[in-house]
UniProtKB/TrEMBL annotation:
A Pfam family: Cytochrom_C
Listed name of the protein: Cytochrome c, class I
Entry-linked PROSITE patterns: CYTC (PS51007)
Keywords associated with the record: Electron transport, Heme, Iron, Metal-binding, Transport
Cytochrome c domain span: 26-118
Keyword Lyase: no
InterPro entries, A to Z: Cyt_c-like_dom, Cyt_c-like_dom_sf, Cyt_c_ID
Single GO molecular function: electron transfer activity
Length: 126
């Protein structure tokens, strides 16, 4: 009986430790609406959460915008207007196309999801 109690507490401890660690490092899943919008706009063709494809990783973007109070608005504007220059050292100057068909609310929802990713410092360019 005592062995069962000890094992139960050990199991609960392992679960609690694992849950805390996974929450600290797990990226939030995109809601179906955000996933659908980002798929429709082709976001995942150029971006991944933790590595560069064509554009910067979402984790790099979260890192760059960390602690900026107006990050959602800045990124939403960039999503709608497109842009180039800020990531040239990593992208070779490939511009992000504009997405003018998105509403500001849609772009802000996408920006919030991107900024909620685990911040990852970009590697040295090159």
């Amino acid at each position: 009986m005592r062995v069962l109690s000890v094992l139960s507490f050990a199991f609960i401890g392992v679960l609690m430790t694992g849950l805390g660690a996974s929450r600290a490092h797990a990226a939030p899943a995109a809601t179906p609406a955000i996933q659908s919008q980002m798929n429709a706009q082709g976001c995942f063709a150029c971006h991944a959460v933790d590595m560069k494809i064509v554009g910067p990783a979402y984790g790099w973007v979260a890192y760059r915008f960390a602690h900026q109070k107006d990050a959602v608005q800045k990124l939403a504007h960039k999503i709608i207007s497109g842009g180039a220059g800020e990531w040239n050292a990593w992208t070779g100057g490939i511009a992000m196309p504009p997405h003018p068909d998105l509403s500001l609310a849609q772009a802000e929802a996408m920006a919030r999801w991107v900024l909620a990713q685990k911040p990852i410092a970009p590697p040295p360019p090159g």
